[in-house]
Amino acid sequence: MSEPSRFDRGHTDDLMTFLTASPSPYHAVATAAERLEKAGFRQVSETDAWDGTSGGKYVLRGGAIVAWYVPEGATPHTPFRIVGAHTDSPNLRVKPQPDTGAHGWRQVAVEIYGGPLLNSWLDRDLGLAGRLTLRDGTTRLVDVGRPLLRVPQLAIHLDRSVNADGLKLDKQRHLQPVWGLGGDLRDGDLIAFLEQEAGLAAGQVTGWDLMVHSVEPPAYLGRDEELVAGPRMDNLLSVHAGTAALAAVAAGGGEGLPCIPVLAAFDHEENGSQSDTGADGPLLGSVLERSVFARGGSYEDRARAFAATVCLSSDTGHAVHPNYAERHDPTHHPRVNGGPILKVNVNNRYATDGTGRALFAAACDKAGVPFQTFVSNNSMPCGTTIGPITAARHGIRTVDIGVAILSMHSARELCGDADPYLLANALTAFLQG
User: Fold this and answer.
1) What is the pLDDT, as a whole number, of residue 403?
2) What pLDDT, on a 0 to 100 scale, did the predictor assign at position 7?
3) How far apart are the first and last CA of the chain?
4) Alpha-carbon dihedral of residues 26, 31, 36, 38, nearest 10 degrees?
5) Model pLDDT, residue 1
């Protein structure tokens, strides 16, 4: 599958740029919004009245974005085609009282977000990024994208059995990063430092949502550079592909579109999606309903539109691991650069059914993109996505798909160089209806 990667390496180059520019969910949606603005989309406020005009629009709420393109001639009951994704990734997040330390070390107090591979955060140069809230209620993004923090691992001389017995990390005691020296610990040191980094006056910041991130840039890997190593592929790879697909569909002017294409990128998937910016919250339903009503629709029109709507829930999945092949289903071995994966679980951990498979197969066929199928080993618990949540909350037919990667939930993950491009093409064909 090396031909597709050589055919359009530019898409994967752009993904790497997107990953670097998006160290937090707040940065990710700002980056996506900037790209959609260049494609002619305009931001609308949830507190304003909406009109029913055609064209591209988007809503930002915290670390979530919902964008849609209304083609000329769309009726109040025109159905939606939705690409769903999430902006958050497992990591270490700063606590409300961040300044701590011991034995002459300055440290930052962090809490575990989601289900990260904890060992992947050890002995790694880390930056700090997120959102600062000011006294006047406005927010400011901040990104210290240089080596600032480090979680030092205990030397093997002090843990002689680590290689034989495995590394055991206490989440409270062993994961607090160091960021300097000094015995005089003062409350407010970290936030004062970030105020300076953001160009703010002292004492302006009264709230924060901050997280650490690896500052090592994404890179091509391997003899033929057919692999990509980078942070937050789960699930910014899908956010990037969905943004590119929606912009591509809008660039065609929407002529002949039988549907309204939508990108819904939610926050908080990694800890259950239950928030006002998560897939289990009201954001997507509110946006879709208001779009129907803004075009003069009734509740009946809303019901008709939703009944014909389809969502592709795009999230990363597991490529077969060469060192642990027995952990995978013996007849389903997704490979990197083999095209996007269709994710199936009969217990509805994924939302795909037979009709969904046929729909996704048709989109891939239209795009000339191969696809693979993923199902878990019966002896291994299956993960889940925003797919079942979207289907249950909104009554929308949903299909779970994604890209096969290795090292999922690591601080640095691994995918094939062709798969992001193939996914974007499949999503574009799907959004075109």
Assistant:
1) 98
2) 58
3) 27
4) 140
5) 36
Domain boundary among 214, 245, 274: 214
Q: Please check whether residue 241 lies inside any domain of the structure.
A: yes
d(CA 310, CA 430): 9
pLDDT beneath 70, residues of the chain: 1-7, 183
Q: Read off the pLDDT of residues 209-218 as tens digits, 9 standing for 90 and up.
A: 999 999 999 9
Which residues 6+ apart lie within 8 Å of 413 measured at CB? 229, 230, 231, 232, 233, 234, 316, 405, 406, 407
- Mutual angle of helices 25-38 and 9-21, in 10-degree steps: 130
pLDDT of the residue at 241: 98
User: CATH no. for residue 113?
Assistant: 2.30.250.10
CA distance 48 to 265: 22
The sign of the torsion formed by the CA atoms of 126, 223, 6, 233 equals: negative
Say if CB 24 and CB 231 are below 8 A apart. Answer: no
Q: Indicate the number of domains in the chain.
A: 2
Helix 233-251 × helix 9-21 angle, to 10°: 120
Q: How far is the C-alpha of 127 from the C-alpha of 179, rounded, in Å? A: 10
Domain harbouring 407, CATH code: 3.40.630.10
Q: What is the pLDDT of residues 386-422, one digit of tens each?
A: 999 999 999 999 999 999 999 999 999 999 999 999 9
> Could you tell me which of 260, 341, 271, 342 has the C-alpha nearest to residue 73?
260
Domain boundary among the residues 184, 214, 244 is at 214
Picking from 280, 271, 242, 161, the residue whose alpha carbon sits closest to that of residue 428 is 242
- Domain hosting 255: range is 2-89+231-431
Same domain? For 269 and 334 the reply is yes
